[in-house]
Write a structure and sequence with these properties.
- Two copies of one chain form a homodimer.
- Chain A is mainly α.
- Chain A has eleven helices and no strands.
- In chain A, helix 9 crosses helix 10.
- The interface between A and B is large, with 48 and 48 residues.
Chain lengths: ~200, ~200
């Protein structure tokens, strides 16, 4: 289970209803205003609850979006975990953790891709999340020049990896172990991470 | 214009009708039997034309699939062109050619992605094409170990690049020049190409 699911789950029926109301309103606001334009305070105002209750149930705005998207993997938490380690081997750790996290949820990954690559893909909450949270965190972790472009490329490769493995199911990629894929692809994507390559 | 569009285009109405009949039958067979299971001979038999006429109109089976998919870019020809050059800088050339080819056809790329990532993505002709033609050619060009897995990873990164640039339109990636993206991403993906890294 992801940490956001266990955290602050209400025990009473009233609590459950309130939690659902928060998720419904958050989904509406994320869809209309994007990730950056949505605030916990604004959601609390619409639902009529104190923002502290939203923080209690979902942690922060990212945790709320994880709940709205019904992600089986708490991607921000997983990413934060691997980004705190040393620069050496960073790309390999990201790839391995990505695959180990999603391998048990292949249909969920495929559904996420399908439901978010439609005509208005650029307005999708999940794209704002990818751009404003995941890529942003990778960019913050990098040093040197062209941080954001390098982070975009890094994320694009991981996205392509997920689509090729879980949606298109290309072989032998779809069946290779996370460790083998990470050992092979890690040193390639590591080139985007290392400052020495982009002084 | 792609070479398959100019080549062997019929001038008479009867020729146009025959060409359309071939494309219709080819679309049916590619969808039912996949790329590998479809033959020019079998299509000719169903339509009632000699296979040599199909070769005259479309070149080979790959050219026929390019016509069926109505691709604005003759991907096999472009890929063959860059693969014939030296190993040095191969990844950079592939990325640059990929972007220069598709930058003028962004909506077509997005439409191709959307119409081929559905529930039965693994049965889609375009996926068989990616797997059986494009990745196959990259694998044939590589030396060393794990050829097919390395080619899968290479293709997955290029696919992710196209989706991030043309569908999700992540910035600054979507607006960066093909040359800049290729110069940055090329050395990374080159690690998958080089034999020395995979003895």
């Amino acid at each position: 289970m992801s940490s956001s699911r266990g955290r602050g789950r209400p025990r009473s029926q009233e609590g459950v209803d309130r939690r659902e109301a928060i998720i419904t309103e958050a989904r509406r606001q994320f869809s209309q205003k994007g990730f950056a334009g949505t605030s916990v305070r604004g959601i609390g105002r619409e639902v009529g609850v104190d923002p502290s209750l939203i923080h209690h149930y979902f942690g922060d705005k990212q945790g709320l979006l994880v709940a709205v998207l019904d992600l089986p993997v708490d991607a921000p938490a997983k990413l934060a975990e691997v980004l705190t380690g040393p620069e050496d081997g960073l790309a390999e750790r990201v790839i391995r953790t990505f695959l180990e996290s999603w391998d048990g949820h292949r249909p969920a990954f495929a559904a996420l891709v399908r439901s978010n690559l439609g005509e208005s893909a650029t307005d999708m909450p999940v794209v704002g999340f990818l751009d404003g949270v995941l890529i942003e965190r990778v960019a913050q972790r990098l040093e040197g020049d062209l941080l954001r472009l390098r982070a975009d490329l890094f994320a694009s490769a991981v996205l392509g990896l997920g689509i090729s493995r879980y949606v298109l199911q290309l072989e032998p990629l779809a069946s290779a172990s996370p460790a083998q894929v990470a050992a092979l692809h890690g040193p390639a994507l590591q080139r985007l991470v290392e400052q020495s390559a982009h002084p």
